[in-house]
């Protein structure tokens, strides 16, 4: 009897071990590719025509294109902090602010996957800028030794694709990997009027948004940016090629995206549609049916729990985002999960550009039709004080053109659109007004809708323990700046 029990127990243990090992072997690889400051409309899959983006578009054709992906915070390090933690920006303490310190208490998905047996690394820009503890970036161990001669000084000399190949070749056999490929492009600076001319582009190719004047200087600046979007896409294509050459593509989930919109006035770091509505595509052969288009709202806090569930793990208890693995596995296109009908967005302190280094706090909710924005401190300048350089907007020819305008100039309203004081509440009907040009918040016809959206937003923020909902929002202005930037080489 005892021998029979022992034999049965051994069989059970062997079955469990075999199942566990099979699960480990079946875990897919994960390649996460992220551009730095690339707008959704710049990619061909979304109808972009200024530059060709064949690698991104291929992933859309052979995988799934997300129509409503949002970043939660439209600035580099806080957006990336949401990615690596799976938390909303107002839940990240110091890491909600730009160029700050990352609290040690938070877990980062690349490190969790490493502990679970994944081979983990990154190249280019991981979580940055800011200060973090430990040797490895929140995105993983750095692979940045391979360099190239860039086409101009505005592009990083890091050979992202070559560094990815080194990583793949060092990976132990039969070990799944998780890699973060983060280009520094199309972040500024640019070699003015250089690369787009080499690419054969013309001034008439530029598409000028309605919140800018239309002139040669601004068109050239937009083309400088667009040419660097192409640089990101080129390295994305080379990374896909590296996987194909090694027979790894079929068992790799690829997600390609950008941290926020283009580095221009009224976009990057601002709370309008083009700042936080980001490109996102997912490819996973045999799991994601080709050519699907997903309308459901997903956000950066959802990425980390998705990767955890893809790896066969439960999301870490700190993660407040929701895995969208079910969306990837679905055979449907369009709207799939009725609960994914909106996202919450926000920002706090970004660059040092106001007296006492205070921020410009904002909370917002984006639904299928509307964007509601609550500017919590409307008496503050949204892009920073003019006398301090409006540093919440990157320096550029476009910024210089706008700041040279004077009251009374015919084009001065363009300056006000980018840098002027804003009302406490803003409301935009996005389908009719995708550039957020007509604020409906003061229109009595929309008073009930505005109140409903604010109530919904504040109820969810309260449930998520946003300090702003408890009269404790000044904590974000009082956090110390990160004394040292991360250990990465800046572009």
TrEMBL record:
<feature type="signal peptide">
    <location>
        <begin position="1"/>
        <end position="22"/>
    </location>
</feature>
<keyword id="KW-0732">Signal</keyword>
<dbReference type="Pfam" id="PF00884">
    <property type="entry name" value="Sulfatase"/>
</dbReference>
<dbReference type="InterPro" id="IPR052701">
    <property type="entry name" value="GAG_Ulvan_Degrading_Sulfatases"/>
</dbReference>
<protein>
    <submittedName>
        <fullName>Choline-sulfatase</fullName>
    </submittedName>
</protein>
<feature type="domain" description="Sulfatase N-terminal">
    <location>
        <begin position="28"/>
        <end position="313"/>
    </location>
</feature>
<dbReference type="InterPro" id="IPR017850">
    <property type="entry name" value="Alkaline_phosphatase_core_sf"/>
</dbReference>
<dbReference type="InterPro" id="IPR000917">
    <property type="entry name" value="Sulfatase_N"/>
</dbReference>
<feature type="compositionally biased region" description="Basic residues">
    <location>
        <begin position="482"/>
        <end position="491"/>
    </location>
</feature>
<feature type="region of interest" description="Disordered">
    <location>
        <begin position="462"/>
        <end position="491"/>
    </location>
</feature>
